[in-house]
Amino acid sequence: MRVRSRVGLLVVALFVSMGAQRASAQEAGAVALPAELDRVLRDYESAWQASDPARLASLFHAEGYVLSPGRGPVRGRAAIQAAYARAGGELHLWAIDYAVGDTVAYIVGEYRGAEPGPEGKFVLALRRDRAGEPWLIGADMDNRNSR
Q1: How many C-beta neighbours within 10 Å does residue 138 have?
Q2: Half-sphere exposure of residue 15: CA atoms within 13 angstroms, side-chain side
Q3: Residue 83 contacts by C-beta under 8 Å, 6 or more apart in sequence?
């Protein structure tokens, strides 16, 4: 009986610990996104961390844009893939606001790399041809915070 209660306490402590780690990982000011919008951020993070420019480009609408500071607009999946050829590293994205319509949506958010605290901010303009289809990035606009 004592072994079972110790195992039970260990399991409870493990779950409490995991919950505390998740809560501390949330960024200040973050808002919860609907699952279909959150998928866009998680897929972007995953592709960026994997240094996979083809997968990154696939998240964009065929005529999507990347609008980065200090560079001209990049348009279309092939150009986006080429622009992201050397992209990658640790990336964490979180939303601070969003809106959703039938075929257009946006996410306003912040990002960081390995260091704590926001490194910059972004706006993702999302689009889809018909309601119910997966969201694609129509435009990715970002800029770094001043240091």
Answers
A1: 18
A2: 5
A3: 53, 66, 74
CATH number, domain 27-144, options 1.10.287.80, 3.10.450.50, 3.40.605.10, 3.90.230.10: 3.10.450.50
Decide: 59 and 131 in contact? Cβ < 8 Å.
no
pLDDT at 23: 31
pLDDT digits (tens, 9 = 90+) for 73-92: 999 999 999 999 999 999 99
**Dist CA 31 CA 78 (whole Å):** 32
Domain residue extents for the chain:
27-144
- pLDDT given for residue 146 in this prediction: 82
Neighbours of 140 (CB within 10 A): 21
Contact at 8 Å (CB) between 139 and 124?
yes
Residue 17 has pLDDT above 50, yes or no: no
